Q: What sequence folds into this?
């Protein structure tokens, strides 16, 4: 009977998978090793991000443990010279769930004996995971969680490299004000945001700063992020006669909105994103020329691959391995490994207090970063004070820096040409 | 229900062999000793999750198993419990244990309101209505930031470690024993319920509510009672979760997947049985945890693949859940006095 | 709010309605005949979208033309699901049935993740891009094509269901398995056919949708909840009911999107609950 056979196959598959996983757990240990824990969503809805981050962090680990002729601390030497040890990243899977992120943090600290933690993408995972680190007295560094109040909790062991949302929104408004000063009509603002933690937080900042900088918000459109059809949201923006859209979207909704803007022939003077979907690696390939003229804040930009040599080199190494360019938040993850390894090496010890002291004294040089930042240096809350947020515009299918004006790689195009005139 | 059931006329309830001292005493000894034997935090965290889901699964079981009203919306009650105690703690400094009781009361009230339309429906329609209510209430949580802090979520303040504060900073043992006591108490209560008049009414409604009504059981009233109890207990589990994870937001605390997981635990274990939810939780959560830890970062979907396969295999082989095996064994052992009176 | 916006909203609601109806019909076919909720329906949709995507990447096939292939493949998957899983849980409690298909959903989504990673993918080469404009109302060509395919599929199914012997046998089986058996209908075969048809329609739906949406392993779950609402609302077992219900939900969603986008799905569910409370059999259910 064929059915029975099929069931048998399923059992076999199950057994094989279990054996495979058991084998994967075995590892040989020889050299002196310093372990750093990394928590990311490796499965579930955010899995794409977690797996991309893992790939580039493993490259960082390779650079630290091997000898490479790169202008990056620890690249030229093997491992962590001050400890005569190799760095080993130990990955944990948060599944994007807070309680699992919490459990993984405890597991990595207690069982893997990691000396520091990195992670965890979604702020809802970073919050509980860093709480565990705080309780155990282990440094926790987040490369990319932007929720503002993460650094307002009075934590001693928490560090953040990325400029948080308020800084990025501030950059949007500095840009708008500078554009206005040039005599361009910015007009009425409309807020478009996904209605979860990130979007609501950004909208709150935008409301405050609009008042401060003297701009008028005429409409707010908050939408659930699992949205399937966005036509009515676009019509709402269109009916409100919005001139400039401040758009806070994830990748899936960002693409849906851009398609609907075109379908409904809605061309605001500018669409200004807040990273997220607008800088995701799928954004330009999915939309092609329809992604043109979109503006977005970006703590990192693919333009750097060509303009900053060190980024080009790292990108080439990554591309050789994985066949694609580095993108979105991957450079942040890479940077976190480098900065943390550097701190541990300077501490010359795996004692948490020593690493904490070294982290606090961090002054990582900008030229060694694959970020556009002046460097990495933390304030008393653990926030990196050197994180800048330039504004990019998609021109001819590429991200170009357009603000600050003095750093611009191309001239800003504002207002964007109507859909009918694009070709 | 003209004749009051007496001990003598009772048939053995399915799975009763798991409620005998020969099984329960070693099991209790094992769970009490667990944190001392297994000190690794993975084991302890997994054990806490097992107990929490056994608790939630049992709460679900009262409505879904005994009274037969299958809900896929219990994450709502879980979220209400978690949020009520946490917001009261933050805003008024109310002790979390008292917050837990308030949360239970709020959840029972919301459940009663949901029940008014939902109990006009049965079967798959009731199930779909609970899914709908789950989505509606979660949307309200996201969009009422004045009350719930919206999608921004809630950080719980770190309090002094103590049982009174329901908070432990360095060790998980405290959390473990608290959820253990809660779970044991709930399971004991369920064992009592199974034999009680209330329990019989629930089962009568489940088997054939029209017949139950004809016999004078007010089916609707007992459905509401089952729902209120179930919701209140689920909310208590929510408070524990909040105190343990110390962070809440509507998307991660009360998504549909939490509702499904709660039901899944009870269903895989065996619905309408006392020990079912425990067996379900004890199998399901460690399996997914062990796979996750073993596979670690290299996951790429392997762990949910095995998880999904395991669910398929259990439903195909033993549709009555793990309790199905237990019952089959009980039937094969007729020399057992209590197991002999099989109908 | 001017008239143009209102009309445009209604139009895009109708377009989405066809999409929802197309996605839901397969679910309803299976439920109508077997009273089993197929939770893996969303995963079927997702796999079909990947099939269309890969055909597009490797052979340059337009997603709409990939529909026969993906329909066939997912129809086969439906048959396998019935033979390997559903047949074994048919006599089991309804809960075991629900969870066997839920397990399949988890498994298939994980499988897609394993095979193709969780990257978002977009069909790049499609003949049906661009916008159709009529009396100032605008609609994407791809959406129009999907709507046309949905109407066509529904019409064919309707014809099959009501005009062919097999279709009538399916209906008889839906009314009563026992009576159908007594009348000499091979119910096992009917069940198999309902799974093949259910799989095939969602397989085709996936191909049509591939050009509208990004493709990733959990895309199906986005639709499947709405599909459940559509099926319940339209009435189990009624093909035309599903079409109407899809349209109603598409319209509600779009109108709610104008007034309170953050609440749009809450409004959909509230109305859905309202309807089933007063008409538990759905709009056109038996």
A:
């Amino acid at each position: 009977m064929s059915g029975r056979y099929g069931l048998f196959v399923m059992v076999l598959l199950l057994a094989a998978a279990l054996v495979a996983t058991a084998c994967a757990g075995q590892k040989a240990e020889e050299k002196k090793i310093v372990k750093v824990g990394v928590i990311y969503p490796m499965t579930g809805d955010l899995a794409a991000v977690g797996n991309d981050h893992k790939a580039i962090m493993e490259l960082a680990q390779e650079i630290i443990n091997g000898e490479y002729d790169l202008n990056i601390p620890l690249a030229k030497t093997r491992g962590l010279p001050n400890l005569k040890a190799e760095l080993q990243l130990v990955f944990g899977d948060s599944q994007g769930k807070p309680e699992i992120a919490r459990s993984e943090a405890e597991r990595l600290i207690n069982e893997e004996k990691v000396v520091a933690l990195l992670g965890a993408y979604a702020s809802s995972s970073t919050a509980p995971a860093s709480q565990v680190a705080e309780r155990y007295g282990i440094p926790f560094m987040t490369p990319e969680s932007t929720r503002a109040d993460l650094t307002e909790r009075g934590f001693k062991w928490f560090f953040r490299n990325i400029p948080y949302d308020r800084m990025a929104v501030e950059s949007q408004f500095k840009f708008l004000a500078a554009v206005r000063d040039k005599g361009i009509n910015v007009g009425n603002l409309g807020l478009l945001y996904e209605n979860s933690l990130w979007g609501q937080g950004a909208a709150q900042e935008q409301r405050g700063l609009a008042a401060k900088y003297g701009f008028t918000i005429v409409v707010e459109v908050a939408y659930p992020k699992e949205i399937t059809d966005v036509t009515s949201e676009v019509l709402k923006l269109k009916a409100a006669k919005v001139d400039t859209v401040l758009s806070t979207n994830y990748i899936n909704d960002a693409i849906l909105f851009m398609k609907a803007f075109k379908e409904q022939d809605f061309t605001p003077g500018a669409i200004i994103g807040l990273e997220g979907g607008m800088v995701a690696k799928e954004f330009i390939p999915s939309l092609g020329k329809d992604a043109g003229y979109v503006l977005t804040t970006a703590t990192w930009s693919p333009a750097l691959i060509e303009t900053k040599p060190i980024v080009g080199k790292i990108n080439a190494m990554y591309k050789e391995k994985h066949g694609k360019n580095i993108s979105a938040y991957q450079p942040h993850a890479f940077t976190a490994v480098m900065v943390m390894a550097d701190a541990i090496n300077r501490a010359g010890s795996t004692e948490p207090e020593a690493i904490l002291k070294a982290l606090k004294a961090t002054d990582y040089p900008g030229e060694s970063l694959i970020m556009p930042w002046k460097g990495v240096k933390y304030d008393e809350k653990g926030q990196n004070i050197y994180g800048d947020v330039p504004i990019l515009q998609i021109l001819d299918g590429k991200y170009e820096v357009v603000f600050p004006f003095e750093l611009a790689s191309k001239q800003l195009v504002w207002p964007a040409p109507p859909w009918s005139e694009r070709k | 229900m003209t004749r009051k059931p007496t001990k003598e006329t009772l048939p053995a309830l399915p799975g009763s062999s798991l409620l005998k001292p020969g099984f329960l005493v070693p099991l209790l000894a094992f769970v009490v000793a667990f944190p001392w034997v297994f000190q690794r935090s993975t084991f302890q965290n997994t054990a806490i999750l097992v107990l929490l889901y056994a608790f939630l699964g049992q709460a679900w079981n009262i409505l879904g198993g005994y009274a037969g009203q299958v809900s896929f919306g219990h994450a709502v009650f879980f979220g209400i419990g978690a949020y009520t105690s946490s917001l009261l703690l933050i805003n008024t400094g109310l002790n979390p244990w008292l917050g837990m009781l308030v949360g239970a009361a709020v959840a029972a009230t919301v459940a009663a309101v949901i029940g008014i339309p939902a109990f006009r429906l049965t079967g798959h329609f009731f199930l779909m209505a609970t899914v709908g209510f789950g989505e509606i209430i979660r949307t309200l949580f996201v969009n009422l930031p004045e009350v719930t802090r919206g999608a921004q979520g809630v950080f719980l303040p770190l309090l002094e470690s103590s049982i009174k504060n329901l908070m432990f900073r360095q060790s998980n043992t405290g959390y473990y024993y608290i959820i253990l006591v809660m779970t044991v108490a709930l399971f004991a209560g369920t064992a009592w319920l199974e034999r009680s008049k209330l329990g019989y009414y629930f089962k009568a409604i489940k088997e054939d509510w029209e017949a139950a009504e004809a016999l004078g059981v007010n089916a609707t009233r007992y459905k509401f009672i089952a729902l209120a109890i179930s919701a209140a207990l689920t909310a208590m589990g929510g408070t524990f979760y909040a105190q343990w994870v110390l962070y809440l937001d509507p998307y991660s605390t009360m998504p549909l997947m939490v509702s499904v997981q709660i039901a899944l635990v009870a269903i895989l274990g065996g619905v309408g049985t006392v020990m079912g939810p425990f067996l379900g939780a004890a199998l399901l959560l460690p399996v997914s945890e062990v796979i996750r830890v073993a596979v670690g970062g290299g996951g790429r979907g392997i762990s949910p693949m095995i998880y999904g396969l395991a669910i398929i295999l259990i439903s195909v082989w033993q549709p009555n859940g793990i309790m199905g095996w237990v019952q089959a064994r009980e039937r094969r052992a007729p020399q057992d006095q209590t197991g002999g009176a099989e109908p | 709010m001017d008239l143009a916006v209102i009309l445009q909203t209604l139009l895009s609601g109708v377009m989405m309605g066809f999409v929802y109806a197309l996605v839901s019909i397969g679910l309803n076919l299976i439920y109508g005949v077997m009273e089993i909720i197929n939770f893996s329906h969303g995963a079927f949709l997702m796999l079909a979208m990947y099939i269309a995507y890969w055909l597009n990447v490797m052979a340059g096939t337009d997603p709409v033309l990939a529909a026969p292939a993906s329909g066939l493949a997912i129809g086969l998957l439906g048959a396998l699901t019935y033979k390997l899983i559903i047949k074994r849980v048919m006599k089991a409690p309804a809960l075991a049935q629900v969870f066997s298909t839920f397990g399949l959903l988890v498994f298939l989504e994980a499988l897609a993740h394993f095979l193709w990673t969780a990257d978002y993918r977009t069909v790049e080469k499609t003949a049906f891009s661009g916008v159709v404009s009529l009396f100032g109302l605008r609609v994407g060509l791809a959406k129009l094509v999907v709507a046309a395919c949905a109407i066509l599929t529904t019409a064919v199914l309707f014809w099959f269901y009501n005009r062919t012997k097999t279709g009538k046998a399916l209906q008889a089986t839906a009314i009563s398995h026992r009576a159908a058996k007594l009348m000499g209908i091979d119910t096992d075969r009917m069940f198999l056919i309902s799974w093949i048809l259910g799989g095939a329609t969602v397989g085709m739906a996936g191909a049509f949708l591939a050009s509208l949406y990004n493709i990733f392993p959990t895309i199906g779950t986005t639709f499947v909840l709405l599909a459940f609402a559509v099926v319940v609302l339209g009435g189990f077992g009624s093909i035309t009911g599903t079409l109407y219900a899809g349209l109603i939900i598409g319209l509600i969603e779009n109108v709610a999107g104008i007034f309170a986008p953050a609440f749009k799905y809450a409004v959909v569910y509230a109305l859905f609950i309202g309807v089933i409370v007063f008409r538990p059999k759905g709009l056109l259910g038996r």
